[in-house]
């Protein structure tokens, strides 16, 4: 029994709606509700459903196996399937057409895989519906763009200053090379080495 439990965890079905679970849509527009599922051991006769506010079924589909695309069981007339399960990702995303303010709420993507002993999993998206973007939003966007542009400008200025400083340091170090050789000879003289050798090492200056 413990072994079976470990296997169940290893092959667990997972459903994801992406990095963020919030979507914003303009009134009267079409909005994509993304969803993908993953399973380590594959799937057979998989069933997926989309719910609005946990109770209203808006899309119901079935997938025989990885070699076939989903077949529709039932759907809301305003909902279209736009995913694909024969490609790299098991994409079961939908599009909600002509969004209204009453469509704002919670959309749940639910998957059941009989091949994993009827394992089930779901993920939820929060949809907000808004009017056309107001002026304040544009101002905020312009401020953000301005700040980002300013930061990029500062970064470029910093890079230029850095190059100039490195160039000056390099030139200074090149100028000091002779001094280092010369002082090295003097140090040797102080350590008891012949002064004539030190003089030979120092290049004649014009």
Structural overview:
Helices cover 35% and strands 31% of the residues. It is an alpha+beta fold and 206 residues long. It has a domain at 14-130: Immunoglobulins (Immunoglobulin-like), CATH 2.60.40.10. Residues 3-9 and 175-199 have low confidence and may be disordered.
**Please, what is the oligomeric state?**
single chain
The outline comes out as elongated
Order of helices and strands: HEEEEEEEEEEEEHH
- Round the mean pLDDT to the nearest integer and report it: 77
Question: For the report, how would you describe the main beta sheet?
Answer: 6 strands, mixed
| Tally of alpha and pi helices | 3
Structural class: alpha+beta
Membrane topology: Single-pass type I membrane protein
InterPro entries: Ig-like_dom, Ig-like_dom_sf, Ig-like_fold, Ig_sub, Ig_V-set, Myelin_P0-rel
Pfam family, one: V-set
Subcellular location: Membrane
């Amino acid at each position: 029994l413990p072994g079976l439990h470990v296997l169940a965890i290893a092959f667990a079905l997972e459903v994801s709606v992406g990095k963020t679970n919030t979507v914003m849509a303009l009134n009267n527009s079409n909005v994509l509700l993304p969803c993908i599922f993953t399973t380590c051991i594959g799937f057979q006769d998989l069933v997926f459903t989309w719910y609005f506010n946990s109770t209203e079924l808006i899309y119901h589909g079935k997938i025989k196996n990885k070699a076939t695309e989903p077949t529709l069981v039932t759907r809301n007339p305003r909902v279209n399937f736009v995913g694909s399960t024969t490609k790299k990702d098991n994409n079961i995303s939908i599009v909600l057409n002509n969004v209204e303010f009453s469509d704002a709420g919670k959309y749940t993507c639910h998957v059941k895989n009989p091949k994993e002993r009827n394992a089930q999993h779901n993920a939820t998206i929060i949809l907000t519906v808004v009017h056309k973007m107001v002026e304040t939003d544009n101002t905020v966007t312009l401020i953000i763009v301005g700040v980002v542009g300013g930061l990029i400008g500062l970064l470029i200025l910093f890079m230029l200053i850095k190059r100039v400083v490195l160039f000056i340091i390099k030139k200074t170090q090149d100028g000091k090379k002779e001094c280092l050789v010369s002082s090295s000879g003097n140090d040797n003289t102080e350590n008891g080495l012949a002064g004539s050798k030190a003089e030979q090492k120092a290049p004649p200056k014009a």
